Amino acid sequence: MAELLIQHGAAVQEPIWSAIVHGNEEIIKLLVQHGARAGESGKSTIVKQMKVLYMQGYTPEELSRYRTTIYKNVLECADALFTAMLELGLHPHSEEARLYRLPMSKTGLLPDQTLTPDACELISALWHDPVIPLLMEQRTKFYLMDSAPYFLDNIERIAAVGYQPTEADALRARTKTTGIYETRVSIGYTNLHVFDVGGVRSERKKWVHCFERVSAIIFCVGLSEYDQVLLEDPDQNRMVESLLLFDSVVNSRWFLKTSVILFLNKADLFREKLPRSPLENTFPDYNGGADVNKAAKFILWQFNQVNRAHLNLYPHLVQATDTSNIKLVLKMVEETISQNALREAGLV
């Protein structure tokens, strides 16, 4: 069983694989780890995509379990917008939007955990108010989950009676990862044992030693986070926090022979944001302007600089919510893991 820790090509021929197994099980671990503590690097979305692509997707019952989470995400997004509006001295134009009251996240759910009709109307009015574009221009000054536009654009569908979440909804549903979650998935001839863990530096010492023999780490970084702050610490930049977390992982004594697969996620948001929010505001040494390729290479260089242990680093530009993109990237990851296993066994 291949085990992959997530820190969020052509398949190897089966006869070759049989030469490097103990019994009938491949020995590979994969750890999945995200960067910033805010937990929106796309780490858990990658794991969800594995289920969609290689585990027959979600059943209707499994999708139904996301309903309450999505309702709460909608309410939290609306509260974040209204709070930021007040703090930045902006005011809704429409009379209905001015009726919005905080905290909607505490009052907007009925006892059966569905959205109240009033909440739906007020949230829709707030999201469509003319002041919102002005507010979103200042998005770097407040925390708002990246899936907010998606959920708020779909507020009428989500608030409808009998709402059933779609796979697209589930992929964007946001819950905090606490502890370690395991997923077993087969990609080609590679059986992966995936461990999805949180990214808080203070908690890493509690579990990091458990993965001494991990074969690869997938480290997820949200490219678009370069101008955002942490929810828990508004004085800390999320990209800087990701670099600190990456440093603590790749230079750990537990991962001296581990390959690192760096997912540079949210390339679409990154491309859209660069012209209006210069990367040099966060990294004064950068001089590539709004060129997305130069900007992505600069951020990759930042991560290479902290890789003092000189672990093998395999970077990929990804968009975690794009299933076709993730399918292609995971196939390349499977090939990387397979080739590394063969190399360690002396077969290539």
Protein described:
The chain is an alpha/beta fold and 348 residues long. Helix 2 packs across helix 15. 39% of the residues are buried. The protein has 2 domains: 2-58 and 176-344, 3-Layer(aba) Sandwich (Rossmann fold); 67-164, GI Alpha 1, domain 2-like, CATH 1.10.400. The strands form 2 sheets. Strands 1, 4, 5, 6, 7, 8 and 9 form a 7-stranded mixed beta sheet that branches. A two-stranded antiparallel sheet has the order 2-3. The protein has helices spanning 14-17, 43-54, 60-64, 67-87, 104-107, 117-127, 132-136, 148-153, 155-159, 167-172, 201-204, 238-250, 267-273, 292-305, 323-344, and strands spanning 2-6, 21-22, 25-26, 29-34, 180-187, 190-197, 216-222, 259-265, 313-317. It holds the Pfam family G-alpha.
Element layout with pairings:
Elements: E1 2-6, H1 14-17, E2 21-22, E3 25-26, E4 29-34, H2 43-54, H3 60-64, H4 67-87, H5 104-107, H6 117-127, H7 132-136, H8 148-153, H9 155-159, H10 167-172, E5 180-187, E6 190-197, H11 201-204, E7 216-222, H12 238-250, E8 259-265, H13 267-273, H14 292-305, E9 313-317, H15 323-344
Parallel strand pairs: 1-6, 1-7, 4-6, 4-7, 7-8, 8-9
Antiparallel strand pairs: 2-3, 5-6
